[in-house]
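It is worth pausing here to work through a concrete case rather than discussing structure prediction in the abstract. The textbook approach is simple: state the sequence, then state the predicted structure, then interpret. We follow exactly that order.
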Amino acid sequence: MTDVAAVRAVARLARVLERASGDLSMAHYRVLAAVADGDERASRVAARLALGKPTISASVDALCRRGLLTREDVVHDQRATTLRLTDAGATALHAAEAAMTQRLAQVLAHTTRGAEAGAALRRIGAGLDHYAASKARQS
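Step two, the predicted structure:
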């Protein structure tokens, strides 16, 4: 597989997963997942997802309006807020992940060595985390 073919496959897979995620866009899914993983500040979510703070702010605003996230003031920092999933946010996240996991399993069932492909995707996820951390250290 060439690099272009890999990029195209990842882009197509992202779209297939987004279609499975119901009314939660992939951008909003990524924000909810980052908060669920412990990134409680919008700046950390932005760094992890390699997005600008205005983009994250717009997503956080939309998720708060939908009742999926809350902002809580940080006691000793007037400028900072902590992001938290609401019960509805956790439910939406889990439902989207269940649907996307099922869809991924369906796609992998149509590949040769599907279990190895799934393991490779998990390694790519770890690589993305390391990449984001190294970019954050550089800035």
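Step three, interpretation. The chain has a mean pLDDT of 89. The chain has six helices and two strands.
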